[in-house]
């Protein structure tokens, strides 16, 4: 049984090809091994018709998943069911190891990010690359900056799914030259028809060298943006912008 990993499971041919009519006709019979066998496929168990499908050295006891080999479900079939499910559980596409967002988490990396302006040598995807800066002039990762623009510019996240958002954390870019922290900024969400400012925004800091956390009344939305007003002497930039949300 230690060699099970060598079985060739024939993908795309996992049985279940008996009709409803057949199952209903035979379900009260004493011998329903075909129905039992097909139900085994329903749990993800394979066929063993061909020699290469069987484990090297054969089976320790008959199995209903090899048609004609057993007319009843055996202890070995029960073992195979547990084994099959232990293998499926390892399949991260079916059972994501990352918890789905029924707990608040940074959902920014799931967003498409756009901006009203980015300097050609910088990149706006820096905002949600998931990398925490060491300080506000950390150029070891990509950064977003809009030099030499002044006044109001925006950065925006678009999500494929609606999220309930309740917090943002902004790490401002400040290079001691043309880029400085902003004068102020607004947090807006898309309500389905128009942009609205979040309510009870508490924070909206403009400190360098740290995440500036802002909490607000939760909003359910697919888009959020920052409207950033620069100082009168410098452009603005962001190293990382987190958005805390829960999937609806
Ligand atoms: Zn089969």
Describe the protein's architecture and organization.
- This protein has 248 residues and is of the alpha+beta class.
- It has 2 domains: 4-89, no CATH class; 105-247, Jelly Rolls (Sandwich), CATH 2.60.120.
- 13% of the residues lie in helices and 27% in strands.
- The chain is built from 3 helices and 8 strands.
- It is elongated, with a radius of gyration of 29 Å.
- The chain starts with 19 loop residues before the first helix and ends with a strand.
- The site of zinc ion has 4 residues, from helix 2.
- Mean of pLDDT: 88
Tell me the name of the CATH class of the largest domain: Mainly Beta
How big a fraction of the residues is strand? 25-35%
> Given the C-alpha coordinates, what overall shape results?
elongated
At CATH's second level, what is the architecture of the largest domain?
Sandwich
Element string (H = helix, E = strand): HHHEEEEEEEE
Distance between the termini: 44 Å
Number of separate helices: 3
Total domains, how many? 2
Strand elements, count: 8
SS-derived structural category: alpha+beta
- Major sheet characteristics: 8 strands, antiparallel
The radius of gyration is 29 Å
Q: List the ions, cofactors and other small molecules found in this model.
A: zinc ion
How helical, in percent, are the residues? Answer: 10-25%
The CATH topology label of the largest domain is Jelly Rolls
């Amino acid at each position: 049984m230690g060699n099970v990993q060598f079985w060739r499971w024939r993908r795309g041919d996992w049985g279940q090809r008996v009709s409803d009519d057949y199952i209903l006709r035979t379900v009260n019979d004493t011998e329903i091994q075909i129905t039992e066998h097909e139900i085994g496929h329903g749990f993800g168990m394979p066929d063993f018709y061909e020699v290469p499908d069987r484990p090297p050295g054969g089976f320790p006891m008959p199995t209903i998943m090899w048609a004609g080999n057993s007319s009843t479900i055996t202890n070995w079939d029960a073992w195979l069911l547990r084994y099959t499910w232990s293998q499926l559980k390892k399949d991260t596409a079916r059972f994501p190891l990352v918890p789905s967002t029924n707990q608040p988490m940074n959902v920014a990396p799931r967003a498409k990010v756009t901006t009203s302006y980015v300097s050609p040598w910088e990149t706006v995807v820096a905002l949600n690359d998931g990398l925490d800066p060491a300080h506000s002039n950390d150029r070891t990762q990509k950064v977003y900056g809009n030099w030499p623009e002044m006044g109001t510019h925006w950065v925006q996240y678009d999500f494929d799914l609606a999220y309930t958002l309740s917090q943002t954390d902004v790490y401002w870019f400040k290079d001691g030259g043309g880029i400085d922290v902003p004068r102020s900024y607004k947090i807006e969400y898309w309500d389905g028809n128009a942009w609205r400012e979040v309510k009870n925004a508490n924070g909206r800091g403009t400190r360098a060298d740290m995440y500036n956390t802002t909490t607000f009344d939760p909003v359910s939305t697919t888009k959020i943006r920052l409207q950033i007003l620069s100082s009168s002497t410098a452009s603005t930039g962001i190293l990382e912008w987190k958005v805390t949300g829960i999937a609806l």
